[in-house]
Amino acid sequence: MALKLTSLNVKGLNSPTKRRLLFRTLKSDKIDIAFLQETHLTKSAKITLTDHVYTRAYVSGALSKRNGVAILIRKTCPFQLISQKIDTEGRFVLLTGTLYSMTYHFLNIYAPTTPSVDFWDSICNLVSALPQGAVILGGDMNAVACPAVDRGGRQASTVTPTLGRQDKLFARFLRQVGLIDVWRVLYPSVKDYSFYSAPHGTYSRIDLFLVNGLAMSNVIRAEINSISWSDHADIALYLHTPKLAASWSWRLNSSLLRDPEVVSQLRTLSIQYFQDNPPGETSLSTIWAAHKAVMRGHLIKIATHKKRTKLHSLVTLQQSLRRLEMSHKSSPSPELLSELLRTRSSLKRLLLDDVAKQLLWSHRMFFEKANKLDTLLARSLKPRSKFSSISAVKTVKDVLVNSPQEICAAFTAYYSDLYNHSPHHDPADKSHLDAISSFLDSLSLPQLEDSHISSLSAPILEEEVNCAISALGGTKAPGPDGFSGGYYKVLRPELVPFLTSVFNDCAEGGSLHPDLLVANIALIPKEGRDPAAVESYRPISLINFDAKIFAKVLANRLSPLLQVLVHPDQVGFVPNRQLFDNTRRNADLIWWLSSRATPSLILSLDAEKAFDRVEWPFLFSTLSRLGLPDFYVNMVRALYSGMSAQVRVPGSSPIRFPICNGTRQGCPLSPLLFLLSLEPLLAAIRDHPEIRGVQVRGDSFTVSAYADDILLTLTDPISSLSHLGPVLSDFGEIAGFRINYTKSCAMPLYMSHTDTASIESGFGFRLAPSELSYLGILLTANPTALYSKNFTTMVHQIKCDLEHWCDKPISWIGRIHSVKMNILPRILFLFQTLPLLLTQRDLAGLQQAIDSFIWQNKRHRVARRILYRPKTRGGLGLPNLYLYYCAAQLTQVVAWHSSASTRRWVALETAFMFPDRPDLYVWLPRASRPILRTTCPSILTSLRLFDLARTKFELMGAPSPLTPLLRNREFPPGLRASDFGGLAGVGLLRYRDLYHNGRLITFSELQERGDLSPSSFFRFLQIRHFATAQMLEKVSTAPLSALEHVFMADGPLKGLISRLYLLLSSSPGQWGPLTYCDKWEVDLCDPLPGDEWEDIWEQTSRSSICVTHQEQSYKTLLRWYVTPVSLYRMGVTSSDFCWRDCGEKGTYIHMWWDCPVVRRFWSLVHAEFQKIFHRQLPMDPWAFLLSRPLSVLSRPEQLLFNRLALAVRRALAASWRQSILPSWSVVTAKIVDACLMDELTAKVRDTMSSFSKTWSLWEEYSSAPNCNLNLN
User: Fold this and answer.
1) What whole-number distance in Å separates Cα of residue 238 and Cα of residue 296?
2) Which of 97, 125, 279, 519 is the right S-S partner for 81, CB 3.0 to 4.6 Å?
3) Phi, psi at 645, each rounded to 5°
4) Which 8-state DSSP code applies to residue 974?
């Protein structure tokens, strides 16, 4: 394996086609480092010469489009930059760095075409000043060292070779710096050239690689290739590298799965294979593993055949071109030159055609996904990662190694030790198993019920496997076998039956094939860590998709039972538990401790490699102790037995090593197993009598966890810590769990200096006197500092990001999507996790920054109230931060209505509010509430926001049917709620409980619900009297509002914040009237009912799959465009008459519809539309301008009509301020492009039938013999 460098004069890269052609050439030739000249990129150009393969580019540009050089480096090249020097005139780029432990100086130059003493002297001084190392200078010298052998051709053969002035300067330069012309040294008597001058009819070798002696010792060979798409030939230089292994591994090409013929072959082959290999003596897992080998071989054969067919013409032309070039260089003649030019032209045309196809598909991708809530927009906002490759790491002996194989060995040794850290903990070690049993027996752990056990013990069904396959991402990276998720989705009917049998065989004691259980370990660098340390990388296990499907099936079975098996203190990865459950709880506890000045300690435990260190004997013992049946445990054991991994480092041969502990990341089952393995530790801490937590009304709050992020709230800290240490030590001995004391952090509250010092010195915990980082927020010792330590910092960072993004090429709606995709999740995280009381003023600065970003610091073109209005209500849906804050906080009021036993913070706040209950107290009108017996900020914030929803947003009536009967000042006897405990126990709690089937409920009906004491009858009479006296029938029987339904939902609701935000943003009087609707109705003299406007809003949002095209629909609807009248009113112009010289005032409707010139244009369009749809269509401006549905069109026809009308409007908008309107040919060109993009997208999405229904009428029209798409 060699390092391959190339140098090429590209003659300009401002064209996207040429850039794509360049990268195609570099990838095809497997270039590691590319020296480019004459890029013609200016300093101000926003073009980046990088892609997903060549991730680093060092570019020098001039002020104008001339000169320009660049060095591109492949992402797999382990070059580590030390310094760089970039010329300001686009003449050179110098990089100094290390490559395979050797210092290299790469200098790319583009010499002036005319003699320049200053240039060559500056390059000479630059090279002479370089420190020791290998020097490689490449580029276009515009000179030759020896004309006798470096120039040739028709005219050169008749002239005595002499050195020109430029040649002399170059020769002097070579003598001064002592660099070697690599190609000439390797081929001293060969004549070959890199440039042909057509005007002079001469060849010359002006593109060179020059090296010093140190670099020359590493040279393998040099090449001059053919002149193809540029006017220079590319030259190549091959360098020795340390012995590298091939880094290629097979991976399924997903495009094959979109070929119906290939899919048909795969179906047939898989059916035949399983018929020929029925279960028998050979295990099912072996048959399955062999099936993958057979399918892989067939896919490789198909891919190879397709590639050879595709490249046949290209290879033939390249060979012919090389032969003709060599002949013409040695014996130039006009006939040979003519044939050479024809061949070169054919090759260039073939390359450009191929690039055009690639650009077409790129255009389709941007057409569909640009400016959307999708990956493209996310990547454009995300800073480019600086990580390229791992160039060197330290071994366990602290020796720095840099060859890929040594790097791979260092990582393998580290992870092999990590995943086999306790070899004496063997499952057969009885003493160790006894220690595990003794520990588990000492704890009070939950047990599964019989119904749960039966669900886990049932054989796996094909429906479960299908469900698991559907849940897996088809674009995720595959494991070592190379099969992607798409393979299993496409061949589901053929593969699922046998795969289900393999999984069920594991439950009966069968095993999985070792190749199925191997994983590739991908290394992701941790930010801010030493890149030379092996522990500075996060290992991501890329497991095979069949193993992932098996794990997903098991996870789907286990996940619903986590609510039973895992205590509410643990909220990570448990359904219906959220991160804010712990952040709100701990903020509440800090307030409680601070309000009572209780000496206490908040301790954050950092678990070292928690997921990777889980001991399997302990894990499986815990599973059995929790009551998981053998049927299920056997399947988990099969997934973990024989597990192995290999670290993938480019250029190295992976070394497979066994795994004997840990739950690997990337496996769907791993997080759930980790929770169950950690639960005994949390139980041991929670139940230990000497580890004292915070006591509130008889309940203890000691430990809270989100997976391995453990936070302890301890009172009597010194005593509690002295007993905590042995618990952690004992658990670590049997489970592999280890605390990193240097990273664990303790925040003391109201502790003496003596006790605080002893914590740091005696227990080794790092002290944080004022703030503690937990789950992405800072918990503060002073509860009032939560805002400044968290929110202020986040707002500053967001404002910086918005300012940085302001100049990015993102469209108007794309900017709205950017806020939704990037800003909103970040700010929502704080809204949910911090119980802060914010006002609109607190958020005004950030909201203003978002507004400025949307409009790029320019004048607003759309009113703010429309911008923030929901799309379904005629707006654009830009997030209103204050409404989202209210919605996020109201979700926690919704959580108040869940059982206190499932959310620990609800139990805590219920204890704070005793004798009131938060789920009842909140529904009381403010005048009817008894005095609250707590000042907890979280509770006060939730109550205030609930009252705001009821009053300001008018989302509930007052009183509500949900108003409680007890602890209600309107009903004085009920203030002593304990007297009515019996009635509350049978469901008589709220006003709506008073009436049943339209009449007042009777005592006998209540008795049927449960046993009631005789005294309860008197209390019932008091309630009945209250209901009658207050005339509560109307209130009690009133239907619940939409918001009340959300609060009283039986189970957790998906998208709860979005639901609440929609209700808040759609509340009466929130946004005011839609002025643009009124203006349209006035302009068209046709008032529309509300439902028709809703149809228009829906059609506008669906007018195109391309956001850029969709924007035009919104701009027309929202009256974006400036008109002669509006410009005149702003004082920009001196006349308000139409630009099309019709003599009338240029109002908005005039410019779009009423102008006589425009009416003729629309008449032509209308006539063509009637031909397309084969029927009479009304000349309706609502339909043509605003996409109001036409009753005469079906749904697919309406969709086509909207697409066509959009193309017409886009053409009209493109000539907005011109007197001449677009021709029909311009319109049809836009329609053809939209049709092509929709068709390509349909092919990718496999929705061609839907495409055909929509576009069939257009295709019929455009293919008709008498159709004239160029009609004017």
Assistant:
1) 33
2) 97
3) -150, 165
4) G
Cβ(1249)–Cβ(1202) below 8 Å: no
Same domain, 1095 and 1021: no
User: What residues pair up with 748 in beta bridges, in sequence order?
Assistant: 601
* Three-state DSSP state, 959: coil
Cβ–Cβ < 8 Å for 556, 681: no
Q: For 647-654, what is the mean pLDDT? A: 86
Q: Is the pLDDT of residue 950 over 80?
A: yes
Q: Specify whether the CB–CB gap between 138 and 108 falls below 8 A.
A: yes
CA-to-CA separations, 947 to 130, 941, 986, in angstroms, rounded: 73, 10, 29
Whole-angstrom distance, CA of residue 1009 vs CA of residue 1024? 18
Alpha carbon 927 to chain centroid, angstroms: 49
Terminal Cα-to-Cα distance of the chain (whole angstroms): 62
* Same domain, residue pair 796 and 757: no
Calculate the alpha carbon distances from 1153 to 1110, 1116, 1165, 1226 in Å: 20, 12, 12, 19
**Residues 1101 and 1027 placed together within one structural domain of the fold:** no
Given a contact cutoff of 8 angstroms between Cβ atoms, the answer to whether 590 and 600 are in contact is no
Q: Which residues pair with 520 in a beta bridge?
A: 542, 646
Q: Is residue 333 situated within a structural domain?
A: no
Does 627 share its domain with 645?
yes
- Quick: pLDDT tens for 1142-1187: 999 999 999 999 999 999 999 999 999 999 999 999 999 999 999 9
The answer to whether 1224 touches 1168, Cβ cutoff 8 Å, is yes
In a domain, 400, yes or no: no
> Which of 64-68, 368-372, 488-492 is predicted with the least confidence, judged by mean pLDDT?
64-68
- Judge if pTM exceeds 0.85: yes
pLDDT in tens, 898-914: 887 889 999 999 999 99
Residue 766: beta bridge partners? 745
Query: What pLDDT is recorded for position 148?
Result: 86
**Average pLDDT of 1001-1029?**
92
User: What does DSSP say about strands 102-110 and 999-1000: parallel, antiparallel, or unpaired?
Assistant: unpaired
Q: Are residues 766 and 800 in the same domain?
A: no
Place of tokens 């996870």: 555
Query: What is the span of the domain harbouring residue 274?
Result: 260-322+346-381
Residue in 24, 9, 127 with CA at minimum distance from that of residue 68 = 9
